[in-house]
């Protein structure tokens, strides 16, 4: 994993902080303080791209809907195919939550 290069107390603290958030409003408040608008938008865009790729959407459709570059789409696709299943875990859980509603 690439993130292993960053693994340590500092990153553990960040992840623990995120895991401590209780609801969406707390997430909005925390991320507004900790990240720039561009950083937040990039992260949310990548998740949207991953969802669309997992649904079988074409690059063209993804570019039109998300405004993501083909480079971003390719990177996300590579993570979906050869990564550590992080996107898969999250997308599966989001799908389960949507089905429960």
TrEMBL record:
Q: Name one GO molecular function term.
A: DNA-binding transcription factor activity
The record's Pfam families line, in alphabetical order, gives: Trp_repressor
Tell me the InterPro entries matching this sequence.
Trp_repress, Trp_repressor/repl_initiator, TrpR-like_sf, YecD_YerC
The membrane-spanning stretches of this chain are none
Q: What is this protein called?
A: Trp operon repressor family
Top-level division of the source organism's lineage: Bacteria
Instruction: List the source organism.
Output: Saliterribacillus persicus
Cross-referenced PANTHER family: LMO1763 PROTEIN (PTHR40080), TRPR-LIKE PROTEIN YERC_YECD (PTHR40080:SF1)
